[in-house]
Specification:
The protein is mainly α. The protein folds into two domains: about 90 residues; about 40 residues, no CATH class. The chain has four helices and no strands. The longest helix is centred in the first third of the chain and has 38 residues.
Length: about 140
């Protein structure tokens, strides 16, 4: 029997989903910026047009120059993968608990298919003892 999803689990998964998606979009945008900046510097600001269309790209990639190709393509690739795989990643990161109540996390003994803490119905009996509480 599949465990029921609760609003708490759905909410946490949604936050993780949008966090992964936001990081992916930021990487895609910054990687695209680095690649386009390299192309603009190479095509329009090249001092020697006799070297061909991409001759300026090699000229502007000197020592201590920010290499947009080297950082842009990996950022674009990783960001795209994060954007496309954000839903399975959020399900993998926030998995349903194997034991206990999925709503409140109670790990004690469930009798009658109902959680004694929060009242969630339709649970299978959980093996183990009820958690002890201190008397302070």
């Amino acid at each position: 029997m599949q465990r029921p999803l609760t609003s708490r689990t759905i909410g946490v998964r949604a936050v993780v989903f949008w966090a992964i998606r936001a990081v992916g979009v930021a990487l895609v945008c910054y990687g695209t910026f680095l690649i386009l900046a390299r192309l603009v510097f190479g095509l329009f600001l090249s001092p020697d047009y006799a070297r061909g269309v991409f001759g300026g790209v090699k000229i502007w990639m000197g020592i201590a120059e920010d290499h947009g190709w080297v950082r842009g393509w990996p950022m674009l690739t990783v960001g795209g993968v994060l954007c496309l795989a954000s839903r399975p990643l959020s399900r993998w990161i926030i998995a349903m608990p194997d034991q206990g109540c999925p709503r409140c996390g109670y790990a004690g003994t469930v009798s009658g298919g109902r959680c004694p803490e929060c009242g969630l119905e339709g649970l299978q009996p959980i093996a183990g003892d009820a958690p002890t509480r201190s008397a302070d």
